[in-house]
Amino acid sequence: MTGRSGTDPVPETTDRSHLRVDERTLVAGTSLRFVMLVVLLLTLSASMMLPVVSQFRTTKPDYVGCELAAGVDPRHAGEASSYAQEMAQEVPFAACQSKYAPGLPLWALAAWPVGLVVVAGGVFAVLPVLMRRRRYIVPLPPPDEEGHPQALLEELALAAGLNGPPTVVLDMAAKSRGAEVFGTDRRPVVSVPNGLLDAEDQDGARAVLLHEFAHIKNRDITLTYATVALWRVFVAVILLPYAVWEGEQIYRNTHLWHWPPTVTPGLARAVLLPLVTLALVYLARSDVLRTRELYADLAAVRHGATARKWEVGQPPPEGSRAQAAWASFTELWRSHPRLELRRHNLDDPAPVFGVQALPTFLVGVVAILLSVDLLTYLSPFIYHMSMWLEQAVALVPALVVTGVVGVALWRSVAFAASTERPAPSGIRVGFWLGLGMAAGDLLTGNSSGNGAQWWPTRPAALLLTIGAGVAVMWWTAQCARLAARTWRGRGLLVPMTIGLSATCLILLVWFSWWALIGVGLANGYSPSIAGVEAGLRALFSASGLEHSATLTAAAEAFSWLNFLFLTPLVPVAVALVWTVPAAAWAAGPTDGVPRWMARVRTGPDDGRPRTLTLPPLRRVLVPGFSGGAIGTVMVIGVEAYLHHWQSRPPHSGHFALTQVVWILLALVASALGAAVAAFASAGRFRLLATLIAAETAALTGILGMSLVVTTDGCLPVLNTLGRGCTWQPPWDRWHHQIFPFLLSSVVVTTAILSFVVAGAGSVVLRLRRRGDDHPAPAGSSPPLAPPRRPGRLRFGLYGVAATAVAIVVGQMAFLERTYVMTTTPSGVQTATRGFVHVPTTPVDASLLASQVHAWGRLGGLWIVNHATTGSDQLISQINAAAASKKTAWRDMGPIGTTCDQLGLLAPWANGNYFRVPDAQAGLSWTRFGTNAAQGSRDCRQGLNQKNARLFGQGLRELAQAGKDLKAAKTRMATVLRTGGYQVPPDLGK
Predict the structure, then answer these.
(1) What is the pLDDT of residues 828-877, one digit of tens each?
(2) Domain boundaries along the sequence of the chain
(3) Quick one: CA dihedral 617, 622, 624, 628, positive or negative?
(4) What is residue 13's predicted lDDT score, i.e. its pLDDT?
(5) How far apart are CA 77 and CA 71, in angstroms?
(6) Beta-carbon neighbour count of residue 105 at 10 Å?
(7) Domain with residues 845-988, CATH architecture
(8) Strand order in the sheet with 188-193
(9) N or C: which end of the chain has fewer CB within 10 A?
(10) For residue 188, what are the contacts with CB-CB under 8 A and spacing of at least 6?
């Protein structure tokens, strides 16, 4: 499958086969694919060798013990309930890992990537020597009286654009007439078969040499042999040891070299990972080498080689579709393309500019592998990272996808525009990319219980990866087509850089969101509605919110909306997704053939502009500004109704929450209407028009809403906040968190709904075949008028764009201040307990006993022992004071010290250490912590104030804490006996 990936096949309107392009003027992208290969190899080498090296540590990490102590079933450690248990106790879990399961030192983590590069560099250095030794190579004989063959080499080197002829040697044992170049770009060596230069077929010799000289001119040698060196070193040094180690692990766990009857998903993935990795790296390597061969063929012909050299033999007969598909599949594994494809490439270089399905699919798989492996590799330092650094990790797969698929898509669009061919829509490309990301997620088990399950708890969540791939590539292709029509420069590098930078940032936000939020949702995590309701009560005050349907509905909606704003760059991505195409659209179409297109074309041209219409900007902005005006009117209607409902202060929390919810619905509804209106009149650029119109309406509505709220009280009928006619902006009138959340909800929801509207509308139009996506026949469209000077609509667009920039800056500052940018264990624990539903799963008696035993072994018994000692000591001190009748305040010092000691133990029972895995013992243990904390405070405060009532109350609370402690110990002892464990003396007291 090549670059024709549009949803609607566009028929050719005229014969434009004479139009050709100079492939050098459009960036090839093979170097970027090589970079992808290097990044993939380095990342995989690090992540694959990490568990291997960990096995050789002198002290074995007790990670399973930490899981058991946290109440997790290690057999299902990656499932949603287990992971939520860990995150809800992140403070003790991080401390337990640090002490009992520490990670490798930094030097050990960096050793494998660095070692791979060093060893590959050594292999690269010796490859030319090996190439010489394994063949019977002799130097080129001196030139004859006519200067042959030196004169021929100098002539061909000059034609190829080289400074001089490279070193040429003769391969005396070669059995073919093909030549080969090896060495480096600075010191290339061309090996030709003996007799080639003296053969009668001088055209064939010239073609062979020009092809190899093209490799030198294109600087392919270093890249090619670096790829070969990396591939060989990776297989020998990384992949083979990992496969041996994994096989040994399987043998140790199953005691036989075949699959057990009850195969586990984790075991299957352990076997599949090296096989898939082998295929991925080999395909990436073959793609780099194969593409370089096609470019060298084109360069050789351009430098004067006759195409007869590629016409040897007859092309194979055409077969069935199945045979053609199989031939295309096998071609992907070849480092040199088949001869018939090379012939076709010379006649029509479209394959060089195509975007193939399988490579795109593999890039999606590679992107997820990189994301998962980097986060896994950096997991020992995850709590020293900020959200910005976590997004920097997501930058790696975003750059890979942008550099490979994004660049290929832009090249395909530019080639189609230059040769009057149907341009790819990006939808099919995005589908294969998203499908690859879904497959990569399943392969790694990232959202399938961390590999413990075959499928995610919510399999439908993987559709998000497909939808994200389609949306981003669709948007990228439309931006490329728009730039091809509106750019006036001599080359597309500038708009391509701008567009792909925006694509990269959007992908960065997507990969970051998927790693932080999407994987959790797929694993079965759900927001805690009770926690969100508690947060809303705190924001809007509790008055009037009891049993409120508005509160319940808002909590349901806001809990999911909140997941959209947890990455700081979301506002930037939303702004770019519409401002980048809006800027190109505002420039207007070019008059005639664009300068960049005239520059890349090499064949004869009739000078006619391409019949691709660009709707006027007013068709996009009029619906946008109209939608914003309608949204403002709707906000005024909401304010008027609320004033009628509750005209006098004090206003309840239910009133304030209803005001925010209805304003949000009004602004989103008006933006959605603008999106539908723009879609109906946007022609080929429906997605971009929908986004621009919807965001323009949303931002205009936000400006109108801000003015209405700012002047609240100036008109009696709109007085809802009851503060009089004062100039007070909405971020001051409402709680400081409400206004930024409202802005984020409006702009982000509008952007998502715009993609939904454009996608659904395109499907409907395709089914009804009533769309105007097909261009009119050539010559039927009137010439496009040159762009006019910016009018009022354009100035309005500039104002809305400035508003978007201001919102982005404000939102970034708000996120920086509100969210904890440094991900600390306590922050994760608090957020998980408050806003994530933490399910509980029943366990059998044996597992429960193992969990309680691990809880005590890793620190619980230490706390129990000190608590028991302190409780017993307090009772002894009280009895001794009563017996000696020393009850003066000056004699209560030792009791106060014991109260303080028990108070210091209380946090360990309420968050600093694991909860007791048994529910009954855990309840008593929690009560001990609560009573010990309160009793310690009352005891100390009573002593300081000499308040006998408060002091006595503290002692009674501490006495109750002692009873709770005894109940917890008794229950834990029972659980251990039932599970076959010996009861420790500390629990038997």
Answers:
(1) 666 666 666 666 667 788 888 999 999 998 988 999 999 999 898 988 88
(2) 1-21+352-508+580-601, 626-771, 845-988
(3) positive
(4) 36
(5) 10
(6) 10
(7) Up-down Bundle (1.20)
(8) 137-139, 167-171, 188-193, 180-183
(9) C
(10) 166, 167, 181, 182, 215, 216, 221
